[in-house]
Amino acid sequence: MCVDSPLPHLDRPFDYLVPIDAADSARPGTRVKVRFSGQLVDGFVLERAAGSEHEGRLSFLDRVISPERVLTPEVARLAREVADRYAGTLSDVLRLAIPPRQAKVESAPPAEPPPPFTGAVAGEPWSRYTAGAALLRALADDRAPRAVWTALPGEDWPARLAEAAATTLAAGRGALIVVADARDLDRLDAALLAVLGGPGHHVALSAAIGPAERYRRFLAVARGSARIVIGTRAAAFAPVAGLGLVAIWDDGDDLHSDQRAPYPHARQVLLARAEQERCAAIVGGFGRTAEAQQLVETGWAIDVSAARDELRRLMPRVLTVGEHERARDPQAAAARLPTIAWRAAREALSGGAPVLIQVPRRGYLPAVSCADCFTPARCVVCSGPLALPAADGVPFCRWCGRPAADHACPECGSRRLRAAVIGARRTAEELARAFPDTPVRTSGRDGILTSVPHEAMLVVSTPGAEPLADGGFGAVLLLDAWAFLTRADLRGTEEALRRWFAAAALARPGAPVVVVADGGLVAVQALLRFDPAWLAARELAERRELGFPPAARMAALTGPPAAVAELLALAELPPGAEVLGPVPAAEGQERMLVRTTRSAGKALALALKAAAGARSVRKAADPVKIQVDPLDLL
């Protein structure tokens, strides 16, 4: 029995006796209630056995909540491995993997399973990639290929993944595809409907559909009527029967990392699942992460990308603010819209095509400073940065939300403010003045555009909210590149290129993509070449030399200093483990890093978990947050 307890020292199976009246319903995978430490708690039956090694007196399980088998042996093994890798508990992982029960949904009659899929899958577009056609043939032959796929600019990636899933289904196996957000999920859902010829064979799982509908679809998968699952990160645990393919799109998106303990990443969950169930795996995207590059360099996966001739035919024309441009336009380096960008936008608009402008920051003026001495404007209460919501708005603190109408600079006493960082709405306002006869639309947090028609318009978007354009955008402008490149983040360069590739891929072939940055920067060079693998290999080599993930394994420990020190003192770290820090975290907390080799990664996680268990036995008051290979490492 797996008992629902967050305490790490109780993360083990417990034996219970099964009453005679529950002998048929208390099967492995069902939900039950048991008495634990004097309380009734939830649990899952993991296994039935004729006897127990426990020498003491066993209690009877209280009752079977539902005879529905929602935890398959494959998902139970996967959850155990994920818990061990991320220093978590099995019950925490199962809470992520299995949605809450909906009794009304369970009692409804199940839908009729669809007839076996025997349709033909047209996979010709895969032949544009080296080993692409071979990848589909291997799926059709029920083999287990593993690929890191770099999509071509303008590629209809939902259709390609749908073809791979349909090919797997036609071979009699199931498929599981994970995307980052609801927009990508909707596109993939539509692509699967088109390839499979209708509903029934697949389900889409996400929190946005509501608990009842989500549980209904989950049961369709658990009962075996739906063999293809698509969804966001929690769908990585879906109980697909006869799994033949796992795939993830844009694995560098931070939405793939769960924000609840033990903080697993969907990519790692799917890779572990591919290993356990010996199925195919595809890691795809317009860009490439260092983790994906490591899969290629270690031989775990093959590189599926297009030949340079095919890439040159479809890629846009990338332009930078270089030395020659600065000679003609001395203000180009400082201008948000230098002459080369203005000219590219004007030419696209005159041809009746839309123009995409990517701005890294949302809002109007997300950061302001003193207009006289340029001192950053901070809140007098919490020292948070002040922002301006509109041209005639009142400054407010981005941390505590307090208005600061009477703000005065602590250095010079001036009450005048200037823009330190310009957001998407202010950019749209400026462009509306620069192009008075052109419609300006925005796509971001306040409202995301799905698509725009092939008309002359300016579309200002924050990263990740870029809409599709019929026929592709006539030009793409990548503004404020410094906001990406100056981030104090291990993945800053990788993230910048990922965002740029995602936007540039929406341009039509040969259209100008203007990045307002120096062409000599490494990330800009990768964009000029349209070669994410080159930068990923470079990033991986540098991280290997410096001992950063994914070349090494790291755990971040965050909490009050005394609690972190106590956990480290109790932990029996593997040989060679390095303890780095501390560094300040939130108020009253600090952060320590523990680094070890990849081969000792599991031993590190288990050691930290054991130390956390020892603290929970002592009933330590202050918790310590344990994150293995966190995205925000620096």
TrEMBL record:
| Pfam families, per the entry | PriA_3primeBD (PF17764)
- Residues the entry annotates as binding Zn(2+) 2: 379, 382, 397, 400
Q: Which InterPro entries does the entry mention?
A: P-loop_NTPase, PriA, PriA_3primeBD, PriA_3primeBD_sf
Q: Which residues form the signal peptide?
A: none
> Keyword DNA-binding on this protein?
yes
> Which prosthetic group or cofactor does it need?
Zn(2+)
Note accompanying the cofactor annotation:
Binds 2 zinc ions per subunit.
Primosomal protein N' 3' DNA-binding domain segment(s): 4-99
Q: Which UniProt keywords apply?
A: ATP-binding, DNA replication, DNA-binding, Metal-binding, Nucleotide-binding, Primosome, Zinc
Q: Does the keyword DNA-binding apply?
A: yes
Where on this chain does Zn(2+) 1 bind? 370, 373, 409, 412
Quaternary data: Component of the replication restart primosome.
- Family statement drawn from the similarity comment of this UniProt entry: Belongs to the helicase family. PriA subfamily.
- What function does this protein fulfil? Initiates the restart of stalled replication forks, which reloads the replicative helicase on sites other than the origin of replication. Recognizes and binds to abandoned replication forks and remodels them to uncover a helicase loading site. Promotes assembly of the primosome at these replication forks.
Name-wise, this protein is: Probable replication restart protein PriA
Which organism's genome codes for this protein? Dactylosporangium vinaceum
